[in-house]
Amino acid sequence: MPNALQSIPMDFSEPSTNKDCHHWRKYKTSSSQSSSARSESGLIVNVYKQKFKSKLAQTLSMAPEQTKINRDMADLRAECSTLGWDGYQAKPLCDHSIQNARNFIALLENESITYPDLSAEPNGLLVMDWEGNGYQIGISIDRDECLAWGGIYKNKHGEYSHIYGDSPYRGAIPHHLKALLLQVVQ
Questions:
Q1: N or C: which end of the chain has fewer CB within 10 A?
Q2: Cα separation of 8 and 62, whole Å?
Q3: How confident is the model over 7-59, as pLDDT tens digits?
Q4: Does residue 109 form part of some domain?
């Protein structure tokens, strides 16, 4: 429960959107005309109390893994948003790569594939990483919708072999990659 609460932004300043201001003004106007007048600060607290309840319900309804993925993506975006974030000449994390990864991860729920660990590459791409059953696999999707993957695995002789490839990303997990990921996670 504490983790869910940590992901809720807490902003108790005056309402900032027109929608919030409309509700605040409505309460302010109706309270000044009614016999049971409320203070302005009490009205503001009520507006934010409703926003808090709504955000809490939304956060708690998410699967814990999805909440973790969202938090990890936000952390990576914050850490890797400037040129040279790695101390050298790494490019900022690309918004297209983040969105493509988010879409790809959403497809995993239907395939019984666990959520990946996330990392950033110096070329500005977000990488989804899986490890298990002797495999280490990394997948990234670039701005041009090219899905690139690579990794290593231990073959039946106990030796490490490299695997890699690329294919167009058309909003679905390619069959060969789905089969590979299922070998990693099962």
A1: N
A2: 13
A3: 444 443 444 444 443 433 343 444 444 444 567 767 777 766 776 665 555 44
A4: yes
Residue 34 counted as domain residue: yes
Helices 40-61 and 18-33 pack at an angle, to 10 degrees, of 140
Phi, psi of 25 (to 5 degrees): -65, -40
Residue 11 one-letter amino acid: D
Total residue length of the chain = 186
- List CB contacts of 154: < 8 A, sequence separation 6 or more: 134, 135, 160, 161
Tell me the sheet residues that pair with 162: 152
* C-beta of residue 55 within 8 angstroms of C-beta of residue 8: yes
Domain membership of residue 115 as a residue range: 64-185
What single DSSP character describes residue 142? -
* Spatial distance between the Cα atoms of 147 and 129, rounded to a whole number of angstroms: 13
- pTM value > 0.90: no
Distance CA 18, CA 135 (A): 52
Tell me the two tokens of residue 132.
């298990």
Residue-wise pLDDT for 63-86, tens only, equals 667 788 889 999 999 999 999 999
